Amino acid sequence: MKTQSPLSRFALLALVASLAACSVLESDKIDYKSAGRAPTLEVPPDLTQLSRENRYAIPGGAVSANAYEAGRANAPGVPTAVSSLGDVRMERAGTQRWIVVNRPPEQLWDTVRDFWQENGFLLTQDQRDLGIMETDWAENRAKLPQDFIRSTVGKIFDSIYSTGELDRFRTRLERTPNGTEIYVSHRGMAEVYSDARQEQTVWQPRPVDPELETEFLRRLMVKLGVSQEQSQAFAASAAPTPSATVSNVGGQPVVQLAEGFDRAWRRVGLSLDRTGFTVEDRDRSAGIYFVRYVPPNPDRKEPGFFGKLFSRSPEASAPAKFRIMVQSQAESTTVSVQNEAGAPETSANAQRIVQVIADDLK
Hints:
With about 350 residues, the chain is of the alpha+beta class. It has two domains: about 35-145 and about 160-240, Alpha-D-Glucose-1,6-Bisphosphate, Chain A, domain 4 (2-Layer Sandwich), CATH 3.30.530.50; about 240-360, TATA-Binding Protein (2-Layer Sandwich), CATH 3.30.310. The chain has helices spanning about 5-20, 110-120, 150-155, 210-225, 230-235, 260-275, 305-310, 350-360, and strands at about 90-95, 95-100, 125, 130-135, 165-175, 180-195, 200-205, 245-250, 250-255, 280-285, 290-295, 320-330, 330-340. The strands form two sheets. Strands 1, 2, 3, 4, 5, 6 and 7 form a seven-stranded antiparallel β-sheet that branches. A hairpin with a 2-residue loop joins strand 12 and strand 13 (about 330-340). Helix 1 packs across helix 3 (about 150-155) and helix 4 (about 210-225) runs antiparallel to helix 5 (about 230-235). It starts with 5 loop residues before the first helix and ends with a helix.
């Protein structure tokens, strides 16, 4: 009987490995640490291009020490250790959750930054002055099949495995009179075929995953000193979702919420983070988010993989700047759009922005 050569046996293993990638995925785990360097992708307008750097590298460069949201001057210069386990809690409105910590942002910033790096991410934004940090695009390797083939060949040739999905997370720290509110928002991409012969692929946005947001918030609570049991109890707690409707007031499209300013402000801010707007600044006392937005172009042709390697991508539309106004009276809030100068916006872009916010708030 003729035996197989080592090369033939390896070829057979490689073939089996490629077929194994289509097996059932373990979707109940999170492991971004083992993700390899992602390729450069064509991403939707106003989404930062994927990092070309190794995701294990520690991001360099100085972090701004400028004050953000008032009160920085009176804060301690060096972060202090956790003195109490009872100063962290999670709040919820529908599918939206956030953490409330009775500590100033200055005591939390480095801990939150370390948290994301420990979870396998490189930070592409690290803006202490604005209270915003954002991860690079990363792959959840726990979704890959955990079978015998991958445990052997996959350890050597791990790059042949891919989930076809990427995630990034934005974290926003907002100062409050009693401490800090921490928001984590998810944005996802999925690789899909762009032609009938399945020879070319493009990356397209996929729906926000509130469960991923909740899981990272829960893990962050543990990092801040809460026990596993307490964090799980917070994450499992439920809260009703206030209604969000789109209407027209004085010829201007608006979102109307049946809730007061504080909760509406939090929910609108998280929706902006989730849906891809770039929040450049915010003024809570005036109820204004200053954002950038790129209107979608349905006629834009997306190149395939090889087209991206050998040709330059089409230039995206220049981003437009808007103000998102959050105005409340008792337990009723109206969300509207203004142009960069502060005048009411009634264009088609305003209608789209209002609809995107309302869809996420529902």
